[in-house]
Specification:
The structure holds two protein chains of two kinds.
Chain A: E1 5-8, H1 12-23, E2 30-34, H2 65-70, E3 73-77, E4 81-85, E5 90-93, E6 98-100, E7 103-106, E8 110-112, E9 123-124, H3 129-141, E10 146-149, H4 153-164, E11 169-172, H5 185-197, E12 201-203, E13 208-212, E14 215-218, E15 223-225, E16 228-231, E17 235-237, H6 240-244, E18 249-250, E19 252-254, E20 266-268, E21 273-274, H7 283-297, E22 309-314, E23 317-323, E24 330-336, E25 341-348, E26 351-358, H8 361-373, H9 379-383, H10 389-397
Parallel strand pairs in A: 1-2, 1-7, 2-3, 7-20, 9-16, 10-11, 10-16, 11-12, 19-21
Antiparallel strand pairs in A: 4-5, 5-6, 8-17, 13-14, 14-15, 18-19, 22-23, 23-26, 24-25, 25-26
Helix pairs in contact in A: 1-7
Chain B: E1 3-7, E2 13-17, H1 24-30, E3 50-53, H2 66-72, E4 83-85, E5 98-101
Parallel strand pairs in B: 1-5
Antiparallel strand pairs in B: 1-2, 3-4, 3-5
The chains are: A alpha/beta, B alpha+beta.
């Protein structure tokens, strides 16, 4: 019996890799090692419907337990890989066991960046299901205000959930604008208006120096009363396992365009993987990299080239992103910011790089297709609502 | 409780009880029915919970919204007039006995 494929990490990337291997007809052993006691689950609802009680924990699991049995995926729960022995091709588990592999997939994800201030132990974070259960409970109980540290996607989704529940909310962001790492200034300004319009107090260029059980203190001494403090200040990719095994790491585990690490028997996917293009933290990236690595293992390797997409829901705003806007030199608006239905198309030297859409689902889907197929779109066409994007795609195909 | 019958592309048939208000997609996932993937978990960001609804039930379904219409244009298998995203089919008493057929592929 061959040792087969071992997948370290039971997030969506790990689960989808196991599933993709079976879908492609892989017949060997598949072992999925999950550090948490939960079977693989979806993270996006944890900061959205789950947090406000519109979705329950039993509906976040990616597969029923029967699925793993039926498809012969050996699920190890509550145990993590602590060491990779590359020479012997086996992994050591925290619980003392070892599992041998022919090929190893590292899908070990990322962890919350801890808040580096005094009293940080009074802060909640949101990444895991257990953290979400705690946060949901604390949110329901909060009486004197909720402080969210970090104006990124997670922080703003938590802020929206808390405002939706009628709590007094203060968002504290160190940068001069919201979601600065991921969106353009126009979108930052838009979301600032949205959150302030919903009654959240949003403080930019502001930093917390101390968290106490009943308040936070900002630089300059201002105190904000709060009985719930949540930090969403980004994540740190889990590179230690790979680094200790002598694999190349940087901001993430370094992989080539086939998602292979510096060891030909070891791949890395999802939040932990630093692909030559970027390291991304998203469902799309987890799922598509999982499929890519499964194809490579089945002897049919193709470079990872899928178009990145992402979404966030805040209040009544559905915000969807596709492509990577980094390095754009021109942005074009389509639709109306005032009506809260618009897209921004980003170009570099006239070539479309990315599209951000606010309540413009059709633009988002069209942009996914255009970026995937390399459909030519000029900035003039992007800004002209009489140009039918779907028709451009059809014309391009024929 | 109303039930729903899922038929795989190879003809494998599974009938399960589906609580009113829940979706045809989430019940497929919870019951380990192959053929519905739901990569995005019902957020209408993918088209991997595509089903063909038995024609007898088509007029009992809610109208296809704009978003579903767009997303149905991105299914892996052929889009037909009875194509729907199962995350958008919420169970209601009128849909008792619903039959959905799953396409050969979702991705």
């Amino acid at each position: 019996m061959h040792p087969g494929v071992v997948i370290a990490g039971g997030g969506q990337a790990g689960l989808e890799a196991a599933a993709a291997l079976r879908t492609l007809g892989y017949d060997g052993t598949v072992t999925l090692i999950c550090e948490e006691l939960h079977a693989p689950y979806q993270r996006p609802p944890l900061s959205k419907d789950f947090l406000i009680g519109k979705q329950e924990a039993d509906s976040v699991f990616l597969r029923a337990l029967a699925y793993y049995e039926k498809h012969r995926i050996d699920l190890i729960l509550g145990d993590g890989v602590t060491e990779i022995n590359r020479g012997a091709r086996l992994v050591h588990l925290a619980g003392g066991g070892t599992v041998a592999y022919d090929q190893l997939i590292l899908a070990v994800g990322a962890r919350n960046r801890p808040l580096p201030v005094l009293g940080a132990e009074h802060t909640l974070y949101l990444r895991s299901l257990d953290e979400a259960v705690t946060l949901r409970q604390r949110l329901a109980e909060a009486r004197h205000g909720v402080v969210v540290i970090g104006g990124g996607f997670i922080g703003l989704e938590v802020a929206a959930a808390a405002r939706g529940a009628g709590k007094a909310v203060t968002v504290i962001e160190a940068a001069p604008r919201l979601m600065a790492r991921a969106v353009s200034p126009l979108l930052s300004d838009f979301f600032l208006d949205v959150h302030r319009g919903q009654g959240a107090d949003v403080l930019l260029n502001s930093a917390v120096v101390e968290v106490r059980p009943d308040c936070v203190t900002l630089t300059g001494g201002r105190r904000i009363e709060a009985d719930l403090v949540v930090a969403g200040i980004g994540v740190v990719p889990n590179v230690e396992l790979a680094r200790d095994a002598g694999l190349d790491v940087s901001d993430g585990i370094t992989v080539d365009e086939f998602l292979r690490t510096s060891d030909p028997y070891i791949f890395a996917i999802g939040d932990c993987a630093h692909h030559p293009r970027a390291r991304l933290e998203s469902v799309q990236n987890a799922v598509d990299q999982a499929k890519c690595v499964a194809r490579a293992m089945m002897g049919n390797p193709a470079p990872y080239r899928d178009v990145p997409w992402f979404w966030t829901d805040q209040y009544e705003i559905r915000f969807q992103m596709v492509g990577l806007a980094a390095g754009y030199d021109q942005s074009v608006l389509r639709g109306s910011i005032e009506d809260r239905k618009f897209s921004v198309f980003y170009f570099k030297q006239g070539r479309l790089l990315a599209v951000d859409s606010v309540n413009r689902f059709g633009d988002h889907i069209a942009a996914r297709k255009m970026l995937g197929a390399g459909t030519a779109l000029t900035p003039e066409q992007a800004g002209d609502e009489t140009v039918d994007l779907k028709r451009l795609i059809t014309l391009n195909r024929s | 409780m109303p039930n729903v019958t899922y038929i795989s592309h190879t003809g494998e048939t599974t009938t399960i009880d589906v609580p009113v208000g829940t979706t045809v997609m989430e019940n497929a996932i919870k019951n380990g029915i192959d053929g519905i993937v739901a990569e995005c978990g019902g957020a209408m960001m993918c088209a991997t919970c595509h089903v063909y609804v038995d024609p007898a039930f088509l007029d009992k379904l809610d109208p296809i919204g704009d978003e579903q219409e767009e997303m149905l244009g991105a299914t892996a298998a052929e889009r037909k007039s009875n194509s729907r995203l199962s995350c958008q089919i919420h169970m209601k008493p009128q849909l008792a006995g619903l039959i959905v057929r799953m396409p050969e592929r979702q991705t």
